[in-house]
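Students often ask why we bother encoding 3D structure as a string. The short answer is that it lets us treat folding as translation between two languages. Here is a chain of 153 residues written in the first language.
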Amino acid sequence: MPPNPPSNDIGSIISLFISQKNLQKRVSKKSIHLDLPGILNDKYYNTNIQRSVLITSLESYRLANDKQIHMPYGSLGENILIDYNPYKLLPGTQLKTGTCLLEISQNCTMCEHLSNINKELPSLLKDDRGIFAKVIQKGVIRQGDSIYLIPTA
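And here it is in the second language, the structure alphabet:
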């Protein structure tokens, strides 16, 4: 990676979360440490590197809020909440944030726990729940870090 960040800043990190063993809710963090198998101390660490990081946009929470579905950040299962809508990014797209490089691997599929929040949520967010990324370069991501879209060669 170049020593200076690329100039194409697309947004920033709003909140960070991990899932801890034996806890049903997400735990908010000021920073997360990542290596190639995923997020350290997350209960899903090293389970599926193609789905090791879930990125969600504030847009998902806005869509829910517009339908009077109110929920705290972290409720959608995200690890990283950002202020940029990434849902149209294609697999293979790379994002740099903090000292990490992430690569979009796939769109997030709906899971049952969303209907436990509200039965309308799965259909409302079917294309706007989040995207999965894998770690390409290990490092640390902190709340407030900028996000850079890495141009394809």
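Translate back mentally: The mean pLDDT is 89. Keep this in mind for the problem set.
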